[in-house]
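Input set for joint prediction.
Command: fold jointly, output tokens.
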Amino acid sequence: MNTLQFSIVSIVIGAAVWLCGHLLGVGYVFFAGYTILQFIVLASAWNILGGYCGYVNFGSAAFFALGAYTTVFFYKFNPLPIPLLIVIAAVVCGIVGFGMGYLTLRLRGAFFAIATLAMAVVLQTLVVNWDYVGGSRGAYIVRAENIQIGGFAIDYIEYLFLLMTALAIIAVGTSRLIARTQLGFGFATIRDDELAAEASGVPTLRLKLIATTVSGALMGMAGAPFPYYIGYLQPASAFGLEYGVNSIAMPIIGGTTNWVGPLIGAILLGSLQQLATVTISSAVNLLIVGLLLVFFVVLAPNGLVGLVQDRLNAWRKK
Amino acid sequence: MSALLHVENISKRFGGFVALDGINLEVRQGERLGLIGPNGSGKSTLVNCICGALQNEDGQVHFDGAPMNGLAAHERTHRGLARSFQLPRPFHSLNLADNIRVPMLYTVHKRTGPLHADSVDARCVELLSLVGLDRKARQMPRDLTQVEMRKLELARAVAAEPKLLIADESMAGLSHSEIEDILALLMRLNERGITIILIEHIMSAVMKFSQRLAVLVSGKKIADGKPEDVIKDREVVGAYLGQ
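tokens >
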């Protein structure tokens, strides 16, 4: 499937989900769908650096929150349309991602992971102490009931759902494109052996900076519409453990070495969490993530995609 | 023959340990140089300094007439310096053909401009045939034997179309026939115009292969000349067998 066909299929699937929700007339479909799509963006973005390059980033929540607070800043300074805010958040988070990469990419393994965690703590401290965006009190975002697009009044949550669908298509499309190009080969060599990669002519530092920038930008894009979705943004929710942990858990559960893994992981884990929220309690979410993560790390370290591939290879050998 | 590689008075220290102490070395275009020395003599450190994996503190490395100091390892590869590793370091998540594809995409592509996918595929097959691994092109490195792994390592280095290839202990741990296999391969590569530095402990292979032999001991070069003269050198004999 080429990129054009992939884009068309993705758009058709997104439109079908939106139409189903619309016809069912159940608003919760869009609330839940938005969250799952948001995790598809975050998981795909995390996977570009963590899965393709092998650099585990514990700072996903920081990029997500930075995107969200970019929106809050402009909401107070001069309200802008959300698509424009998404672009601005991508630029801001891309720059921060580049900076983080430049400062930390000489570190490897656990040291890199700790550095990204430290960056998240530093950013959260800055936001908590920045009164203009609400500080520790948080900030209220008042969204309209609906929005006029091409003469049609669309419910605002449906509009956010459509925006997040577009972002999910962009994130998965970017991840897929990277995996199929020269860049994907370069990232794989970094993950496998950086010294051998350099000896083969791969400019590892440049490629890692590309990965941190693209990954950061996509995570920021996921965060930009969030204040409009949640209505009230506070540092504890934007920098929440949920985003950092889910961004890592979803690709690991789905499989990190290709673009499909994070997509499957996000749909599976995101849907389970939504189901648990409405049937048991939202507090069970992280428990589900933890249990699944332990299960997959121990029994299927290459994720669901790896598990299926291994089974297929074994079957072919028979 | 003109000097392709010129190592001028390079030194490298690790804390208080002097790994290289004012090494001078010249390798001429098309030459086959053997580099020997006991364990810890600085052979791999010298290779790492030449290839850019380590930066030397003093001295200069000139390659093909241009200074190399300060250049990253990948930039040196782009200029025609390639190496194989003492312990094979394949890209485990890529199959054999894709292992070979990487240097073509990142080095040859850089030198010659965009490569057509078909020509890259054909070159992958050609290089894998050269080392006898063409039938395993779609297999993963984990499926290879030790000697095949070393052949893959050499094929990947050659895929970068180097002017100089440094083979770091490519025969370690191999059987006699496997050593002959690798030796024949290195000879074929040299016949194709690639200058080769062979770092090796297996003296029969080194003697057979080398046109010139250099000996390192404790970070210093103690001999450099014709192999038959070097192995009779009293200092060399002393370093290997004790005074």
